[in-house]
Design a protein that fits this description.
Keywords: Membrane, Transmembrane, Transmembrane helix. This is PH domain-containing protein. The protein is of the alpha+beta class and 207 residues long. It has two domains: 133 residues, no CATH class; 64 residues, no CATH class. 46% of the residues lie in helices and 20% in strands. The chain is built from seven helices and eight strands. A five-stranded antiparallel beta sheet has the order 1-2-3-4-8. A hairpin with a 2-residue loop joins strand 6 and strand 7. The longest helix is centred in the N-terminal third of the chain and has 20 residues. The chain is elongated and about 70 Å long. The termini are far apart.
Amino acid sequence: MASLQDDHDAVVERFQPTSGRATGWMAVVLATLVVVAGVVYVDDGFPLWVTALGLLIGILAWATMIRPALWATHEHLVMRNLAETVHIRLAAVEEMAVRQVLAVRAADRRFVSTVVGRTWRKALTSRHRPGGLADDAALAPTEGMHYADFVENRLYELVDKARSRAGLRAGSREQLALPDAVRREPAWLPIGLLAGAALFLVVSLLL
């Protein structure tokens, strides 16, 4: 039983971010420099609130631009966002599209990941495919394909396979009734860090 569970939780595809990482790391580095300067020059009158603000900005940049991740296991699409990690059963996915962000509809709810997205212009010209890819060989991933297109096609492929294994049809009553279609786990680390940094900033402004 444990081995079967491990197989289901094994990562079959880890999707790389299409934007934001470089900006996020730059923000974290600059914020770190501000915090270090605040610690080093605290006795020279360096404003405490500036140190606190730098800390908050650094944590926020990490939580919103670096921490988010997207991957798929045999059974789930996993979105790690700022405040939570969402596990969506692939067979339960009702609709999905990559526009400026990845939007997935499951269990009559909409979930968004900022990890993968298209530019505004590319999002306007891309096609939305409500169905699967089983009969659309032209949309299979090919060399030179835009990465966002590859991600969308790969996700549709994984969803189609999961539906086939479960014997489900998209939009069917059985699909909508799937148990444990979505599982959400709060991300206590970034929530706690952001709350602590915000409290530090408030206290520093009051001193």
